[in-house]
Design goal:
Order of helices and strands: HHEHEHHEHEEHEHHHEHEHHH
Number of helices: 14
Strand content: 5-15%
Number of strands: 8
Largest sheet: 8 strands, parallel
Structural class: alpha/beta
Radius of gyration: 19 Å
Strand order of the largest sheet: 7-6-5-4-3-2-1-8
Shape: globular
C-alpha cells in the first residue's frame, strides 16, 4: 500500500530546499518590519504592532555592546516558548561561519537564520555555505561586492550592516547609498561584457551573478535596512532609498514607549511615500522617550560591527 504521508513528507522536504522557495519566503515580508526581541512579552508587542517577523536574540544589540564578552546564539528553549505565543515567523542569529549553531537552529525549526556580525564571529575567513541548508538565510552587507558574495553562498535575504544598538542610522544610509551607486555603475555597463568582467574580479564573484544583477538593475534578492533605526522618520527614509523593508530592535525596546514606537515604525514603513501618514506615525512617539543612543564616531574602529566579515 502507498504510504501517502511518507511520500508527502519527502516531497515537502525536497521543495523546501529549493532556491525558489528560500528566496520567495523573504519576498513575502517586503514592505514590513522585522523586530529584534529577547522574550515573549517583546515578541507579543511586535506581533500586535504589525511586525512581519521577529528576530530572537539573547540580548538586544544595545545590551550586547554594553555587556561585552562573547555573544552567541539565543536559547532554543526560549524559541520554543515564544513560538507558542505568537503566530508570525521567528528568525534567530548564528555567528558568522558557525555551522554548528546554524544546524541546531535549522533542526529547531527556525524560520530564517541570520548569519550575523552582531554576534561574535566564529570564523574570520569564511561564511557558511548556505546552499547546504533547507532554511533561508539572511546576511549583512556594506556594499555590492559583499552583497553578491553572500548571494553566491546561498543567502536568500540581505540587510544593510548599519550599527545596531546605537540609534544612529547614518551607517545604514552610507551602506545603502554605496550599494545603489555600484548598482548604477554595473547596470550602465550591462551591454559591455569586458566591463562586467572587471566588476566580477573587483567584487570577487562570478560573471553570471554580475550579469544577472546588471540586467535586473537591482539585487536579485530581498534587501532590508538594518542598524540604528529608531524612529518612524528613520524607517521612512530608508524605504525611500529603495530598501524592501526594515529591521529594528534596540530602537524599539530600549525606548520607554515600545508599544507605540513599534506601531509607528510599522506604519511609517508601510506608507513611507505618504508624508501625511508618516507625519501621523511621527506624532505617535516623543524624542524624550527614545533610546539614548551611541555615537560610534567617538568609539575605536574595533567596536564597529560593520567591519566583521565584510572582506570575506
Amino acid at each position: 500500500m502507498l504510504d501517502y504521508n511518507a511520500g508527502q513528507v519527502k516531497l515537502i522536504d525536497r521543495i523546501q530546499s529549493t532556491w525558489l522557495v528560500k528566496k520567495g519566503f523573504p519576498h513575502m515580508q517586503e514592505k514590513g518590519v522585522i523586530m529584534d526581541v529577547t522574550n515573549v512579552e517583546q515578541a507579543q508587542i511586535a506581533e500586535q504592532a504589525g511586525a512581519v517577523a521577529v528576530m530572537l536574540l539573547d540580548k538586544l544589540p544595545y545590551d550586547i555592546r554594553q555587556s561585552g564578552g562573547i555573544a552567541r546564539t539565543a536559547s532554543v528553549t526560549l524559541f520554543d516558548e515564544i513560538r507558542e505565543h505568537i503566530s508570525i515567523p521567528i528568525m534567530m542569529k548564528c555567528r558568522i561561519g558557525h555551522i554548528g549553531e546554524a544546524r541546531i537552529l535549522e533542526a529547531a525549526g527556525v524560520d530564517t537564520i541570520d548569519e550575523s556580525e552582531v554576534l561574535t564571529p566564529a570564523d574570520t575567513e569564511h561564511h557558511i555555505w548556505k546552499h547546504d541548508f533547507k532554511v533561508p538565510f539572511v546576511c549583512g552587507c556594506t556594499d555590492l561586492g559583499s552583497a553578491l558574495r553572500r548571494i553566491e553562498e546561498g543567502a536568500s535575504m540581505l540587510r544593510s550592516k548599519g550599527e545596531p544598538g546605537t540609534g544612529d542610522v547614518k551607517h545604514a544610509i552610507v551602506h545603502f547609498n554605496k550599494i545603489k551607486e555600484q548598482l548604477r555603475l554595473i547596470t550602465a555597463s550591462k551591454d559591455e561584457p569586458s566591463e562586467l568582467i572587471k566588476y566580477s574580479r573587483e567584487f570577487k564573484v562570478s560573471f553570471d551573478i554580475i550579469q544577472l544583477t546588471a540586467n535586473m538593475g537591482r539585487l536579485p534578492i530581498t534587501i532590508f535596512a538594518a542598524g540604528g533605526i529608531s524612529s518612524p522618520a528613520d524607517a521612512a527614509f530608508m524605504m525611500s532609498l529603495g530598501c524592501d523593508g526594515i529591521f529594528v530592535g534596540s530602537g524599539i525596546f530600549k525606548a520607554t514607549d515600545p508599544q507605540s514606537r513599534a506601531e509607528s515604525v510599522v506604519l511609517a514603513t508601510s506608507f513611507w511615500d505618504d508624508p501625511e501618514i508618516v507625519l501621523k506615525a511621527q506624532k505617535m512617539v516623543s524624542e524624550d522617550k527614545a533610546m539614548g543612543g551611541i555615537d560610534m564616531e567617538t568609539k575605536p574602529s574595533s567596536e564597529r560591527w560593520e567591519t566583521r566579515g565584510s572582506d570575506i
